[in-house]
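BUG: 3D viewer hangs when loading the predicted structure for this chain

Environment: internal workstation, default settings.
Expected: structure renders.
Actual: progress bar stalls at 90%.

Input used:
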Amino acid sequence: MLITLSVFAGMIGVWCAAAAWLGAHLAAVAAIRRFSHVLAPVVFIAIGVLILARFAIPSARPRKPSVRRRGSTRSANHVHTGITGIVPEPESNVRRRVDTGR
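Structure tokens produced before the viewer hung:
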């Protein structure tokens, strides 16, 4: 969590420094003002198309990791939780072989 917050704060600083540097150059400001009425809608439409494509097209969606089912390659007394890995089942849930005397 600390690394995530550090990277987030650092990148905010980078973006602020880039904006300050860009705002100090009058030629860049003039170019942005000249093309902003065209550039802004194009950028927003492109972002919207990417979002729609990611969720509307099944092959573009991120795949969920496959979850192994019980009994596939693991022992019978373990359950895959998906979050914490493999944990032993409580003793009350473990199937026991009953000796029928045959």
